[in-house]
Design brief:
- By secondary structure, this protein is of the alpha+beta class.
- It has four helices and three strands, in the order H-E-E-H-H-E-H.
- It has helices at 2-13, 42-51, 59-68, 91-106; strands at 19-25, 31-36, 73-80.
- It has a three-stranded antiparallel beta sheet with strand order 2-1-3.
Amino acid sequence: MDRKKELKQLYMETPIEGGVFQIKNNQNGKLYIGSTRNFKTLNGLKFSLEAGSAAPTNKELQEDWSHYGAGAFSIEKLETLKKKDDPYFNEKEALKELESKWLDQLQPYEERGYNKKK
């Protein structure tokens, strides 16, 4: 029981990091680029895909996940958002800019990925 408490304490003390991530289909090379304010939420995203409930977010990614299975995909952090102590720092806006940079760079659209052009 003490070990459980210790792990929970470590989890609570871990600083919250956000940034840009990619989900890669290793079977066909397609990418999904996304951003999050907290990388810990990626476990929840993976769970949603495994449960088949991520379809509203990205139907095509969900279909491929269901077809190929979790083992065909890898999820990795591409870049961690560097937070500034500036009182005018807008984390949401900074994340959007970081995600845009990676979308421009990797172009995960149509046959290359799961993202939709905005």
